Amino acid sequence: MPENELKIIKGCQNGNLEKFRLLYDAYIQKIYRFIYFKTHNKEVAEDLTSVTFIKALEKINKFDPDKGSFANWIYQIARNTIIDHYRASKSHLDIEDAWDLNDDTDIERDVDFKDKIKEVEQYLKRLKPEQRDVVIMRVWQDMPYSEIAKITGKSEANSRMIFSRAVSTLKKDMPISLLLYLFLIMK
Amino acid sequence: MENKTKQILEDLYMIDKKFKDQEDDLIKIINKLIETKPEIKVDEKFINELRRQLLTRARLVYPETSVFWASITNLNKLSYIAGGLAVLILIILPLTFNLISPASISFEYEVTSVEDGAFGVLTSSEENSSEFTYSVGSGSVLADNLTQEAVSEISRAVSSASGVGATSALMPTPLYEPEYRPTYINYDFVYEGEEFSLEESKLPVYKRKIEFSVSGTLARELSKIVNILDFSKLQNVVITELTAVENKDFGYIVRMNLEDNTFNIQKNWQRWPNDYIKPLAPCYGDVCIMEQAQVDPKDLPSESETITIANQFINKYSIDLSAYDEPELSENPEMELLRYIPQYVSVVYPLKIENKLVYDSIGNKTGLTMMIDVKEKKISSLSNGISALFESSNYETEQDTKTIIEIAKKGGQTYFYQHPNPTKTYVIKLGTPELILTEYWKYDSNNQTSEKLFIPAYKFPVTGMPEEIDYYSNSNRNIIVPVIKDLLINKNEDDPPNPYIGFERIDSESYDIGLPAIAE
Q1: Cβ-contact A70, A9 below 8 angstroms
Q2: Domain boundaries defined on chain A
Q3: pLDDT tens across B193-218, in order?
Q4: Cys staple from B346: which of A7, A187, B330, B392, with CB 3.0 to 4.6 Å?
Q5: Sign of torsion, CA A96 A102 A105 A108?
Q6: What is the pTM of this model?
Q7: Which of residues 140-169 of A touch B (CB under 8 A)?
Q8: Does domain A110-187 have CATH number 1.10.10?
Q9: At B64, which helix (H) or strand (E)?
Q10: Rounded distance, CA A139 to CA A159, Å?
Q11: How far B40 CA lies from chain A's nearest CA (Å)?
């Protein structure tokens, strides 16, 4: 974890919560995008991003740097917030994000997202949530494996492996043009 | 092949080398698909609103603490040893800490939103009374009506001020054979960027919030200690400045201005070595011609070393950087133009308000600035330290991007004069702009005061210019155009912009001013 980040977190834990805005500025774009790509809706993404940061602010005292990075911690909050959101609205216990919803589920999506992702959606849904997260982070959010490793709490090599398995899964089912399309829109 | 395409292909090959067999097709598809890549833009309003909510919540979760004293005691790490004033500060600070903890100057970052238009009309009061109106067309009416005589006057003034001693072509009867003649330079700005739009009809303008309470309280406490006069007889006294001197080798002097809540740090000259200033020749009495010894190029620290030195200083004295972006080296025209190794290099921590970087009027990042002594590898000074409390107030924006581009073509905030008969015209290419904040001084002629505002503006990067241009190459690589309507519609000038006059060396034969040649 960057020394400066740890210093800010310690400042927050010592009661100077106004320093939390520095963490907010560092993570808001990443967390919003991560949530958006898992919900496909601007309003929902904004709501869940707000909830994620409010939870992080209120629970900052519980963050233990010895147990993992701050990135790992806040992404986990985001992940749980998404799951809570879908669990609250659907009685489907395995829902991790909008990708896991049934085809006949009426989910409101942004027009742009709907048009661009329609074709690849059926393939992405076949991935395990963990694989999907890594694909989203690597390709859509353009993160290096070192950063993905921090967020997922896995090693860099393990993250690469998850990504390559995800791609292999996609390759089996997807025509080449769709696979490329996926890569490009993810870039 | 574009880098992006290459990277995507490499990613694919790393996963499966069989993709390589289809490379030609892949490139076609990739290039086509790159054009249709969807963009997701996080709504700035949402980001700002959530930041405000979190700050409010932070205060609810944990009651507000007095941060002024934390800031001051951070500076106390400088070991206030010498000087009566320094001792005084050490006495006063604990006293006041106990007595007046609610009074504070925060050097930490905070933005408070106030009602729309709260800072009044943004144009300076003198500008309001001027008849000069900024027009988007071919130039200002006043500027267009400038007579040749007026240009001549300006030319003389510029020649005189520049100290070049040049003889203008418009000036009569040169006494000496001229070596230089003026060249009237126009800059032709051409926009080559992409289409852009401004969604927000209003955007926040920022102003620093100044706290005075501490200076009054310090004055009261001072009156209890200082017996040189009866402070109680003075009314409404405030302490405006504090100076602390660190009396040790490589010590510092810290100056805090409590009126405008700023601070700066300079090296204590008396306690720093001065061996790089040497007499050039033996001194005659008190008269010495001093020479500043050249810094050895090998002493010049690398960029990363320089940044590390700056960061170490920041960490050592716990200077709050909440309002600043990552540090970067300032450009050094001396080094580039004169091939001169300077004694100091400069690092700037750019000011960032609600995630927008602040630029000065000619497009350079501005913020906390540190000078690093190249030879000693130490911080020599820190300037532009401010309390980062801001108020924000929304103002109407100019959403017509054509208008914005037209203003950029005139040079934006710098606003260049267009000479009717230029000697040279340089074409400057401008790229797609980025929304930033720019410093703007609002002058109130009635009170003869100025206050700095931070105005949302477009920064047009200079993407191309002729190689022979020296003006832009080292100082101005961006054109700044404010987006607040007030400042564009009522953009008034007391004086028309001066023509940019350069000087080029000529021989006497080519110097034709319509006068008989001076006989040798």
Answers
A1: yes
A2: 1-106, 110-187
A3: 999 999 899 999 999 887 655 666 67
A4: B330
A5: positive
A6: 0.52
A7: 164, 167-168
A8: yes
A9: none
A10: 13
A11: 8
**B422 closest CA partner among B184, B80, B154, B137:** B184
Residue of A nearest to B31 (CA): A184
The CATH architecture of the domain made up of B294-386 is Roll (3.10)
Contacts of A22 in chain B (CB under 8 A): 322
Asked whether the beta carbons of residue A183 and residue B11 sit closer than 8 angstroms, the reply is: yes
What length does chain B have? 520
Place of tokens 């126009």: B186
Per-domain residue ranges of chain B: 125-202+393-507, 294-386
Residue B27 is predicted with a pLDDT of: 72
Report how far residue B69's alpha carbon sits from residue B76's, in angstroms, rounded to the nearest whole number.
10
Complex ipTM value:
0.79
Residue B182, beta-bridge partner list:
B503
* pLDDT tens per residue across span A76-111: 899 889 888 877 766 555 666 666 665 555 566 666
Contact status of A26 with chain B (Cβ, < 8 Å): no
d(CA B446, CA B128): 12
Cα–Cα distance between B43 and B199 in angstroms, integer?
10
Residues of B with a Cβ under 8 Å from any A Cβ are 4, 7-8, 11-12, 15-16, 22, 26, 29-30, 33-34, 36-38, 40, 42-43, 46-47, 50-51, 53-55, 57-59, 61-62, 65, 67, 108-110, 322, 355
**Nearest Cα residue to B354 out of B110, B151, B82, B123:** B110
B261: its two tokens: 């809540």
Report the residue from B30, B57, B322 with minimal CB separation from A57.
B57
DSSP string, chain A: --HHHHHHHHHHHTT-GGGHHHHHHHHHHHHHHHHHHHH--HHHHHHHHHHHHHHHHHTGGG--GGGS-HHHHHHHHHHHHHHHHHHHH---TT--SGGGS-TT------HHHHHHHHHHHHHHTTS-HHHHHHHIIIIIS---HHHHHHHHTS-HHHHHHHHHHHHHHHHHHS-HHHHHHHHHHH-
